[in-house]
Amino acid sequence: MSDLKNIISDGKAILGIEFGSTRIKAVLINPEDFKPIAQGAHEWENRLENGFWTYHLDDIWTGLQDCYQDLLKDVKNQYGVAITKLASIGFSAMMHGYMAFDKDGNQLAQFRTWRNANTTEAAAKLTDLFQFNIPERWSISHLYQCILNKEDHISKVDFFTTLAGYVHWKLTGEKVLGVGDAAGMFPIDSDKMDYNQEYLAKFNNLLKEEKLPYTLEQLLPKVLTAGENAGTLTAEGAKLLDTSGTLQPGCLLCPPEGDAGTGMVATNSVAVRTGNVSAGTSIFAMVVLEKALQKLHREIDCVTTPDGLQVAMVHANNCTSDLNAWVGLFADFLRAANIEMDTTTLFKTLYNEALNNGAPDCDGIITYGYLSGENITNIPEGRPLLARMPNSKFNVANLFRSNLNTSLGAIRIGMNILKSENVKIDKLLGHGGLFKTKGVGQSIMADALNTPVWVMTTAGEGGAWGIALLAAYATADNNKQTLPQFLDSRVFKDADGSKIDPTPAGVAGFDKFLERYVLCLGVERQAVECLKA
């Protein structure tokens, strides 16, 4: 405790702050073992105004300041000292979206977050123009949609960026962005660690056609990679962060990053042929590629690691929500029967029954946990569905094996696209609610994806910890190694985790289940047509 007190008092601690969709979180870490030593948080919510999901600038600053003050309270309570200096700071936030400013730094339009889907026309046109998938939530989609809509502010734009880039700019004066976050603004050329020049030229032709007084290069933040110096905390920035005026300016800041990049860092999934799968309400896989994908796949988002390696992101809207609803049905039965069982035990009982006694192919039972539409399988709306053969063995084990399998059905189809591109995966790290019952979700996923799946015994501190690690990596003592080397040899060298390998029977069973899953998608589409609200 005295050592940690001295680290803080001497200004050697490292700070990471991430703006999530519902919470801003700060994590202070020890520069020696990189473990969290203090935390702070602030709850916030987006607003739906004028048809856009947004946060006000005041929301950003009051939230950041309250989060930092909450951190200071934790430091005071634990160590009895104040933070006057820091070794380095990192900021991360939700990726994508649109924050536009004029030459005097005035905001030109309300902040439009990743959640807005008003850019369908722009995203489709840019995807066709580039022959590279441009999702609706990307910043370039928002900018181009504003141009297509001929919004009044568009001729005045001098700079546009993401939320992390905006906060970093105001604290340092530097208009820069980490390459992982920049990859959610505009496509990146990983060989040059910069925006793709071919696509820039094509977009600039669109700007000429619209007679706009700038090129895209003039508007975008400068791209930096992990480990680079992204500026220092100014006196004005120190006051913005710490309203008490105690924090001194001058400390190093790392490149601001997006939440996908910090998630990869926090799970040590930044090396080639590694990936991580987050499985909860929705599910997404991030796989670090040996080379860029050769073909256009509208189901796959192409972003990068914080050090610029190409990453394929496969995202499915549905994972555990309907699975949880089935567990809830059994909980209702237990209540009706006056049988007491806590939720954790109920999940464990049902999941282990599925794993231990369920047929890997679920004996012909097919379920779709589609509470919402699913882009990968082209299902426009949610209709949870159950179907089975008359001779299927309809028991708890097979029913829940089917629900576990189907939670991975869409993501497996997306991963098959990567397989068609000869993408190799040596190691996947799983995290999220699907893995709470030890060994079950991990085993099902290993079989579903035919890949070893690791689960860490400690969940870490999420994205705020991830950006704190990037802030640590930016210091001179650490960035002599590559980012994967730094994480492997310094941060995760003693990390505990468990690996489960796929089994031949499990792989074959899931493949058979998936055949039926694909064949019956027509039934799911008919359910959407026939079951109307």
From TrEMBL:
Domain Carbohydrate kinase FGGY N-terminal: 14-240
BP GO annotations: carbohydrate metabolic process
Record's keyword annotation contains Kinase: yes
Protein known as: Sugar (Pentulose or hexulose) kinase
Family annotation (Pfam families): FGGY_C, FGGY_N
InterPro entries: ATPase_NBD, FGGY_C, FGGY_Carb_Kinase, FGGY_N
Family membership noted in the UniProt record: Belongs to the FGGY kinase family.
Superkingdom as given in the UniProt entry: Bacteria
Residue ranges constituting the Carbohydrate kinase FGGY C-terminal domain according to the UniProt record: 276-474
GO function term, MF aspect, one: kinase activity
Record flagged with keyword Transmembrane: no
Keywords: Kinase, Transferase
